[in-house]
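Example record

One chain of 106 residues, shown exactly as stored in the release files.
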Amino acid sequence: MKTFLLLIIPFIVFASGKMMSNSDYLYFSGIDKQPFTQQNEKARLYAIDTIGEKKAHSITKELTTEDVMSLKLTHSGRYLIYKITTKNYRVIINALDGTVIGKESK
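Predicted structure tokens for this chain:
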């Protein structure tokens, strides 16, 4: 039983957050060699985002009880993320489902 649990834990950990679709991943990674400008990339990021900036602000406020100083929507591999900075913390939130990926103090 322990062996089974040890084998299944990585699948549970990596399946905890939503990921971008294959076409979106290829678009942002540049693998499909599709020409695009930075403005088009930003527009596509916001089109894929499902939680929105207001929800990211509220998640950060609940988590840190501090006001947001900066917020940036970006991608990391197959994940679409918000990088949020407050006075004392840096928070990373999955922009597709709102899960908190990381929280670290400055």
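Notes: The mean pLDDT is 81.
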